[in-house]
């Protein structure tokens, strides 16, 4: 990691942020279970002198006043997600998860700690206007942002822009990747039941084989990407599971498929759903069977506003240096940060934390996922500088 100075983040603040991150890491909580994390956030904000309140069941929202109460700009919101993943951690960390089947294997614990650190800076050294702090539950389920919005996180006072950063294992520590425009994909899920007529496997002529129909459906679904989608647009249609009764000599009456679709544009999202339904029903009927389809639109695409990208870009350059901020490529993963950015302009950036020398090179959602904790002061100062730049 290049030597990067974070002059606003004192040694005591670094120690505090590290302690908070490790405490959250040891006691991970899944979607809408984040009561301990919620209490920790409220307690830490109170120590700083910031009054937070509960929202969206297990979330927290708080306001930090700015220097100028007459600022004409609408309020800036900084967002951090809080929830862990339903998986075991397999690292050698002294502060590894103490809860079996739960782990912070995506970095949300660091996001909370960094935003609390930024809150202390904002309180100690106010920027040109007020900042709303958004600690959001249930990002991994793709529903937390909408619950926060429904509970009024963008209102009273009205939010004019929203920013968030995600520590990222695919980027070397000390660098920031920012996508200009469509950033992360919309995420949709489907369950399909292909129905046929089961029977003895030795007599295929008197049955309707749902396994054969399913194979044709899976193959035909690939035409959505190759023959229906604009080649310069981006789409993924993936069947991730195929299940049926297991036997050597019995053809089952039905087969269940499940999978995901990823798109960036609203038009593309509608097209994928339409063609998937047409292909599944048409192929099944043609081959003598039928189908039941449950198609669920889960998370909207995350689209960065180019003017707000400039705010985060300049703030990141202030901390990391001009050479360490770069234009990143869109990703097919999903993020419910996109729901805020449907309502207000903003930017979601990717702060590098990859460091093979410290074992911080396993990807997100992996049992060996580790964060190089040198990223924490970088994130704290970038969040603060983003608020400073927004009001400048």
Summarize the topology.
Layout: H1 11-26, H2 35-48, E1 52-55, E2 59-64, E3 75-81, H3 108-124, E4 131-136, H4 144-150, E5 159-172, E6 176-178, E7 182-184, E8 186-195, E9 199-200, H5 210-221, H6 223-228, E10 235-243, E11 250-251, E12 254-263, H7 266-286, E13 290-299, E14 302-303, H8 306-320, E15 325-327, H9 337-343, E16 346-354, H10 375-390
Parallel strand pairs: 3-4, 3-5, 5-16, 6-15
Antiparallel strand pairs: 1-2, 2-4, 6-16, 7-14, 8-12, 8-13, 9-11, 10-12
Helix pairs in contact: 1-3, 2-3, 3-10, 5-7, 8-10
Can you put this structure into words, describing what you see?
The chain has 392 residues and is α/β, with parallel strands linked by helices. The protein has two domains: 11-183 and 303-390, Aminopeptidase (3-Layer(aba) Sandwich), CATH 3.40.630; 186-299, Alpha-Beta Plaits. The chain is built from ten helices and 16 strands. The strands form four sheets. An eight-stranded mixed β-sheet has the order 1-2-4-3-5-16-6-15, sandwiched between helices. The longest helix is centred in the last third of the chain and has 21 residues, at 266-286. The chain starts with 10 loop residues before the first helix and ends with a helix.
Low-confidence segments: none
Helix content: 25-40%
Order of helices and strands: HHEEEHEHEEEEEHHEEEHEEHEHEH
* Named CATH architecture of the largest domain: 3-Layer(aba) Sandwich
Structural class: alpha/beta
Write out the CATH superfamily name of the largest domain.
Zn peptidases
Share of residues in strands: 25-35%
């Amino acid at each position: 990691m290049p030597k990067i100075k974070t002059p606003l983040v004192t040694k005591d603040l670094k120690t505090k942020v590290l302690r908070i991150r490790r405490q959250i890491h040891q006691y991970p909580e899944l979607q809408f279970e984040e009561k301990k994390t919620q209490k920790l956030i409220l307690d830490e904000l109170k120590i700083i002198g910031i009054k937070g309140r509960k929202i969206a069941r297990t979330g927290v929202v708080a306001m930090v006043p700015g220097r100028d109460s007459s600022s004409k700009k609408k309020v800036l919101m900084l967002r951090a997600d809080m929830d862990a993943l339903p998986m075991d951690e397999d690292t050698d960390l002294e502060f590894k998860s103490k809860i079996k089947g739960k782990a912070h294997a995506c970095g949300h614990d660091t996001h909370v700690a960094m935003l609390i650190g930024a809150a202390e800076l904002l309180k100690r050294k106010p920027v040109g206007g007020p900042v709303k702090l958004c600690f959001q539950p249930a990002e991994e389920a793709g529903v937390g942002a909408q619950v926060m919005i429904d509970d009024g996180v963008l209102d009273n006072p009205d939010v004019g822009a929203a920013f968030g950063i995600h520590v990222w294992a695919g980027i070397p520590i000390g660098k920031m990747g920012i996508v200009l425009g469509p950033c992360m994909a919309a995420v949709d899920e489907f369950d399909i039941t292909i129905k046929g007529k089961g029977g003895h496997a030795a007599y295929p002529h008197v049955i309707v084989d749902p396994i054969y129909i399913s194979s044709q459906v899976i193959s035909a679904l690939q035409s959505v990407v190759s023959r229906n989608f604009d080649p310069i647009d981006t789409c993924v249609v993936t069947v991730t599971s195929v299940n049926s009764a297991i036997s050597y000599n019995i053809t089952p009456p039905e087969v269940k498929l499940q999978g995901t679709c990823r798109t960036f544009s609203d038009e593309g999202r509608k097209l994928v759903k339409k063609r998937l339904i047409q292909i599944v029903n048409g192929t099944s009927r043609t081959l003598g069977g039928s189908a039941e389809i449950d198609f669920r639109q889960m998370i909207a695409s995350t689209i960065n506003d180019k003017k707000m990208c400039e705010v985060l870009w300049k703030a990141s350059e202030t901390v990391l240096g001009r050479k360490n901020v770069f234009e990143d490529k869109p990703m097919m993963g999903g993020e419910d940060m996109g729901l805020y950015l449907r309502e207000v302009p903003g930017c979601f950036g990717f702060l590098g934390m990859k460091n093979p020398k410290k074992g911080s090179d396993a990807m997100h959602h992996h049992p060996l996922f580790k964060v190089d904790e040198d990223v924490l002061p970088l994130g704290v100062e970038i969040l603060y500088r983003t608020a400073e730049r927004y009001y400048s």
